[in-house]
Write a structure and sequence with these properties.
The chain is mainly alpha-helical. The chain is built from 7 helices and no strands. The model has no long low-confidence stretch (mean pLDDT about 85).
């Protein structure tokens, strides 16, 4: 049993070192190349750092536990350089994750504002082009109606084949008897179509706006709260550990 204890101590320390060093290397790679002007990059950086945040914490824990086991075997007080360095790293990471909370919240809010502006601009652009699009549809419908009325043979064939039936036949007969009613009919249909499309634009805009706000809220809560919890964990390990070593 005594021969296993040194092995367990060394294994924990080595595993902890590997976890901490690979995590720190991973953080450095995430920063290459830096692009602090891009909101998406900053939000992604914070999210990936938080997602990997538990790895160095586990590594530091392994180092401390392994060092403690080794110290207990040697009958001396823990105070070697490795545990001290681990506690310093824990304290630094605690500060970093604490600073990540406002960093991420501000970026998430800025991204939400940017996305909402884009959604509103797209809605305004669609609403601005709506009258012209409806006018083109009305003009095409007018041309179709006039073509049918001017070609009675084609009209009769369309009715006989079932392409035109029911209310459409009645309307075409009305247009044939009163050509002036075509304009009033098309104007009414154009207004109905424009109102329908405006409703669709408003619905899509509302859905997109709510979706953007939901995504921003989830990102803020998930990354922000996780970063805060990591900051607390690292602070407890690092600062309390350093205080205990000074005593």
């Amino acid at each position: 049993m005594k021969s296993i204890t040194p092995l367990a101590s060394r294994t924990l320390v080595i595993a902890g070192l590997v976890l901490v060093l690979t995590a720190l290397l991973d953080y450095i790679i995430l920063l290459i190349p830096p692009n602090f002007e891009a909101l998406e990059w900053k939000i992604g950086l914070a999210g990936q750092m938080v997602d990997r945040g538990i790895v160095p914490l586990v590594g530091i824990t392994f180092i401390l536990v392994g060092s403690w086991i080794g110290d207990q075997m040697d009958g001396r007080r823990s105070g070697s350089a490795l545990p001290l360095a681990s506690l310093v790293v824990a304290s630094m990471l605690g500060l970093i994750f604490l600073l990540l909370v406002p960093f991420h919240v501000m970026n998430a809010q800025a991204a939400q504002k940017q996305q909402l502006t884009t959604i509103q601009e797209q809605a305004t652009q669609a609403a601005t082009g709506l009258p012209g699009a409806v006018a083109n549809q009305v003009q095409e419908e007018r041309g179709r109606i006039q073509a049918l009325l001017q070609n009675e043979t084609a009209l009769n064939q369309a009715i006989a084949s079932g392409q035109i039936q029911g209310e459409q036949v009645t309307l075409l007969q009305q247009f044939k008897d009163k050509p002036a009613s075509i304009d009033s009919y098309l104007q009414g249909k154009g207004k109905e179509e424009e109102a329908r499309l405006q409703g669709e634009i408003k619905t899509r805009t509302k859905t997109a706006t709510e979706g953007a706000k939901t995504v921003a809220l989830k990102s803020t809560l998930r990354t922000g709260l996780s970063s805060l919890l990591l900051a607390i964990a690292y602070a407890v390990v690092g600062w309390t550990g350093l205080r205990a070593m000074r005593q």
